[in-house]
Design brief:
It contains three helices and 19 strands. β4 and β5 form a beta hairpin. It is globular, with a radius of gyration of 30 Å. The N and C termini lie far apart (108 Å).
């Protein structure tokens, strides 16, 4: 009798719990299938992102305001296939290794595709990033605000090193603390943008500047970008420098602006060994532009000081 009762008890347990066991196995399979599906979807998204990045990496942008000729051969004697206007994108096919120089800019002939046409361009007038807006020209701060994607929040800092002009020591503050109370006060805000770009705003006693970091660019590309941002660089009302068509400078000196005003051009290396080009006017305060090579790219600064 005891054995019979034990038999019925085991049978009861089997009938009660076996369906849950098999259902659980099915759920595990379904869960595994869901994981595989989700994994495939994620892989597809990542592949699409990689494709977009790869496609963007092959794009170059015309950054000379007068446009550039697409030629049938890597030479100025090649037939003009088309005239590509400022700001248009071309797809890089290959570099030829054939050097060329124009308006002081050095580079080489590159084979590109533009719309349904294929030909050769001088890459000294091309940028690997979008050219600034043209009508009206996008200044340094406008380029960041209008053409780049911000990430994170803006950070405000106060300089706490008063031993020199390098401003190396900074303390994070709130934005309501950005107030100039004395000649030694110096603040900055900065924000990062997608692709490694950074925009700084510097504020001091009778001083204001915007400074942008552009990863991967060299000094010539930085100057090409500045020409596009400030085709008529204004020092004060009635005083402009025709910068949009200026050749890449090889030596410093005086530059004549509109209305007989004069700008000073400096070329050289700073104490840190960084190459730079600086253009300024000191007739009414000091208004300046600077392009400087830094680690990983270039910095462009537009500043005003009394």
């Amino acid at each position: 009798m005891k054995n019979l009762n034990l038999y019925f008890f085991i049978a009861f347990l089997a009938i009660t719990f076996l369906p849950f066991f098999f259902t659980g196995c099915g759920s595990s399979d379904n869960s595994e299938n869901e994981k595989i599906t989700a994994g495939n979807e994620l892989e597809s998204v990542e592949n699409n992102i990689d494709d977009d990045i790869s496609e963007q990496a092959n794009l170059l942008y015309v950054a000379t305001l007068s446009g550039i000729n697409l030629r049938s051969e890597p030479s100025t004697s090649g037939e003009v296939v088309d005239r590509i206007v400022y700001g248009q994108a071309v797809e890089l096919i290959r570099t030829t290794g054939i050097p060329f120089e124009s308006s002081g800019f050095s580079g080489e002939w590159t084979e590109v595709k533009y719309e349904d046409k294929q030909g050769y361009l001088f890459n000294g007038f091309l940028l690997p990033i979008e050219a600034p807006g043209f009508n009206p020209p996008a200044t340094l701060s406008e380029y960041f605000h209008e053409q780049l994607q911000p990430i994170g929040r803006e950070i405000a800092q106060k300089n706490i090193d008063h031993t020199g002009n390098d401003h190396r020591d900074w303390k994070v503050i709130s934005e309501d603390q950005l107030e100039i109370k004395g000649e030694s006060d110096f603040f900055r805000t900065y924000r990062e943008y997608a692709g490694g770009f950074i925009l700084y705003e510097e504020i001091g006693y009778e001083y204001h500047a915007y400074k942008g970091f552009f990863p991967g660019l060299n000094l010539e590309q930085g100057f090409l970008l500045v020409r596009a941002m400030y085709p008529k660089f204004k020092a004060y009302e009635g005083c402009y420098l025709e910068l949009g068509s200026m050749h890449f400078p090889k030596e410093g000196g005086a530059l004549k602006g509109i209305s007989m005003c004069v700008f000073t051009l400096e070329i050289g290396e700073n104490r840190s060994g960084q190459k730079f080009i600086s253009i300024g006017n000191d007739e009414m305060g000091y208004t300046g532009l600077e392009v400087k090579e830094v680690k990983g790219g270039i910095e462009i600064k537009n500043f005003y000081a009394m």
